[in-house]
Amino acid sequence: MAKPDDRSDNAEKIQNSIHNTRENIQETNDYLDEHADEISGQEQSSLEHKNAKRERAIEGFEEEYQDEK
């Protein structure tokens, strides 16, 4: 038998996802700043691309969070 659909903590889970994604962005930016002389242009570009995707994900999380409130 399938579990009932419990969405009571969705807003909290979305907030946690937003928080974790922001932390990942900050950690990547810190890494880029600290190792700017050591990393290749390709690695830097890849990490910047990941952060751009994370920013878009946060926008989606925020929209979803508004729907859950």
TrEMBL record:
<feature type="region of interest" description="Disordered">
    <location>
        <begin position="1"/>
        <end position="69"/>
    </location>
</feature>
<protein>
    <submittedName>
        <fullName>Small acid-soluble spore protein Tlp</fullName>
    </submittedName>
</protein>
<feature type="compositionally biased region" description="Acidic residues">
    <location>
        <begin position="60"/>
        <end position="69"/>
    </location>
</feature>
<feature type="compositionally biased region" description="Basic and acidic residues">
    <location>
        <begin position="1"/>
        <end position="12"/>
    </location>
</feature>
<dbReference type="InterPro" id="IPR017524">
    <property type="entry name" value="SASP_thioredoxin-like"/>
</dbReference>
<feature type="compositionally biased region" description="Basic and acidic residues">
    <location>
        <begin position="46"/>
        <end position="59"/>
    </location>
</feature>
<dbReference type="Pfam" id="PF19824">
    <property type="entry name" value="Tlp"/>
</dbReference>
